[in-house]
Amino acid sequence: MARPIFILNGPNLNLLGKREPEIYGSQTLDDVEQMCAEAAQQAGFEIDFRQSNAEHELIDWIHEAREKASAIIINPAAYTHTSIAILDALSACTCPVIEVHISNVHQRESFRHHSYVSQRAEAVIAGCGVAGYVYAVQHAARLNGSR
Q1: Which of 68, 77, 13 is nearest to 45 (CA)?
Q2: Does the active-site annotation cover 24?
């Protein structure tokens, strides 16, 4: 079996399905994890799915992914616009990085238009709802030579 695809979720995504459903929809993070697991299995991969509200924990997971992951899919949430530390951690990885946002950040407040993570990501998926995670899993699998 191939190395797992790490799927890392930043602050407040634990509230998915409850917080601002008009922006983020009604599906929960558990629903997203299930969708990703199914997409990964179809491509011959497993996932390692995590969420934290703590920047340092996300950075530690990125460091772990350097040794263990075939790809990193990350929704850094609000850290997208603020965290040079997450960018630095991702820059130390050699595996593909795919940035995901549920909403179209470019249609929102101007401070959301800049992403530090995008400077490292091979791909950015935004505005596709939670289906963006599935697209990211499929793309990560392709980048790693799936069937």
Answers
A1: 68
A2: yes
**Residue 105 carries which side chain, given as an amino acid letter?**
V
Distance CA 7, CA 35 (A): 12
Token pair for residue 77?
């949430």
Q: What is the pLDDT of residues 94-145, one digit of tens each?
A: 999 999 999 877 656 675 657 889 899 999 999 999 999 999 999 999 999 8
Catalytic status, residue 106? no
Helices (H), the chain: 21-24, 29-42, 55-68, 84-91, 131-143
3-state secondary structure of 67: helix
Residue of 63, 79, 81, 101 with catalytic role: 101
pTM above 0.90, yes or no: yes
Burial (CB count within 10 angstroms: exposed 0-12, middle 13-18, buried 19+), residue 138: middle
Provide CB contacts within 8 A for 33, sequence distance 6+: 7, 47, 49
